[in-house]
């Protein structure tokens, strides 16, 4: 009986650890509240899919998928330095930006298509001109383009967007939604804001 209770407790503990969403506290709000929306397209669509079960139940989604027209500009959410610019079979073309103080943003499944030729665009269609490993970027700067490379091939074009703090992914949906609302207001009323968000 004791052995059975131990197994039940262990199972509950593992389930709690796997499904528990790490929380960011108030000290992180300055960075998160100033993020620029990562896709420069007013028709972007997203919802809070962080934590969804993917890969036939084998993994948990640790980002937010932002759908937009293929080729839409992807922009840096904050100032930083290009930490990674690469390709893998699963991620396709992707970029990571180190924003210092433990913050990293990740942009996955960039475009690899050219008109009439699926998957033949390569790096030239994935990354913006002037983007290179170690290069500095500023908030709102175009770094790449929305696509469906890697295991997203054949899906709705989107960027898997992820924010990590000290190597851990966090659900930043509420902050992304706020950055979207700022972007949407700016697009509709640019003179009222008197600033350029991009």
How do the strands and helices of this protein lay out in sequence?
Layout: H1 2-19, H2 29-33, E1 53-54, E2 59-60, E3 64-67, E4 73-75, E5 80-88, E6 92-100, E7 103-110, H3 123-126, E8 136-137, E9 142-145, E10 158-165, E11 168-170, H4 173-188, H5 190-193
Antiparallel strand pairs: 1-2, 3-10, 4-9, 5-6, 5-8, 6-7, 7-10, 10-11
Word description of this protein:
The chain is of the alpha+beta class and 198 residues long. The protein has a single domain, classed as Glucose Permease (Domain IIA), CATH 2.70.70. 24% of the residues lie in helices and 27% in strands. It has five helices and eleven strands. Strands 3, 5, 6, 7, 8, 10 and 11 form a seven-stranded antiparallel sheet that branches. Strand 10 and strand 11 form a beta hairpin. The radius of gyration is 18 Å and the shape is globular. Mean pLDDT is 82; it is low at 2-21.
Cα radius of gyration in angstroms? 18 Å
Helix- and strand-based class? alpha+beta
CATH arch. level architecture: Distorted Sandwich
Largest sheet: 7 strands, antiparallel
Give a quick precis of the structure.
With 198 residues, this protein is α+β, with helices and mostly antiparallel strands. It has helices at 2-19, 29-33, 123-126, 173-188, 190-193, and strands at residues 53-54, 59-60, 64-67, 73-75, 80-88, 92-100, 103-110, 136-137, 142-145, 158-165, 168-170. The protein has five helices and eleven strands; from the N terminus they run H-H-E-E-E-E-E-E-E-H-E-E-E-E-H-H.
């Amino acid at each position: 009986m004791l052995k059975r209770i131990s197994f039940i407790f262990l199972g509950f503990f593992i389930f709690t650890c796997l499904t528990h969403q790490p929380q960011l506290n108030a000290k992180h709000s300055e960075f998160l509240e100033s993020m620029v929306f990562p896709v420069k397209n007013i028709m972007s669509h997203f919802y809070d899919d962080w934590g969804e079960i993917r890969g036939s139940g084998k993994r948990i989604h640790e980002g937010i998928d932002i759908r937009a027209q293929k080729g839409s500009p992807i922009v840096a959410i904050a100032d930083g330095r290009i930490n990674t610019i690469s390709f893998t079979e699963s991620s396709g073309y992707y970029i990571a930006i180190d924003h210092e103080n433990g913050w990293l943003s990740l942009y996955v499944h960039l475009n690899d298509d050219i008109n009439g030729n699926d998957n033949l665009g390569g790096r030239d269609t994935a990354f913006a001109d002037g983007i290179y490993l170690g290069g500095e970027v500023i908030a709102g700067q175009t770094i790449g383009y929305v696509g469906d490379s890697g295991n997203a091939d054949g899906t709705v074009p989107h960027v898997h967007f992820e924010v990590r703090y000290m190597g851990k992914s966090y659900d930043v949906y509420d902050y992304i939604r706020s950055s979207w609302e700022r972007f949407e207001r700016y697009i509709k009323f640019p003179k009222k804001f008197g600033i350029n968000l991009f």
